[in-house]
Amino acid sequence: MCVVTALVNPTRAGRFPACPIRTVTGFDCPGCGSLRALHELTHGHLTAAADYNLLLVAFLPCAAAVWLRTVTGRVRPRHLPRWTVPATIIVLVVWTVIRNLPVLGGVLGA
Asked: Among the four residues 8, 72, 89, 95, which has the most C-beta atoms within 10 Å?
């Protein structure tokens, strides 16, 4: 997926489908801008990627660390703690609300 995203610019119209949540509601969902952010990250543009989706940029190092620890055998896969699913939902809801606040002038929008 990263190779395709690096080769095909998602900012050009017609390349990828539009976000259905943004199309229907007009609001940015937690994932809006992730494809463009990933494209920018594959080209080494960290600040441009953060402009598209800051949550993705903040999440990727954590996901990479967990993946690396699992692949190297330092941590055996086990069940997630009970708090992870509610915490993830809360983070996504808070991120969605914050990025759609008109007070911020669309600073965190996709």
From this structure: 95
Q: Which value, in Å, is the radius of gyration of the alpha carbons in the chain?
A: 16
Tell me which residue of 108, 6, 18, 94 sits closest to 57, measured CA to CA: 108
Residue 29 token pair: 């969902």
- Crossing angle between the packed helical segments 54-71 and 34-42, to the nearest 10 degrees: 70
Name the maximum alpha-carbon separation found in the chain: 46
DSSP 3-state of 31: coil
pTM value is 0.75
106 burial via Cβ count (<10 Å: 0-12, 13-18, 19+): exposed
Give the C-alpha distances (Å, rounded to integers) separating 3 from 7, 35, 69, 100.
6, 12, 23, 30
Q: Is the pLDDT at 106 greater than 60, yes or no?
A: no
Q: Is 80 helix (H, G, I), strand (E, B) or coil?
A: coil
- Give the tens place of pLDDT for each residue, 65-95: 888 887 887 766 667 778 888 998 999 999 8
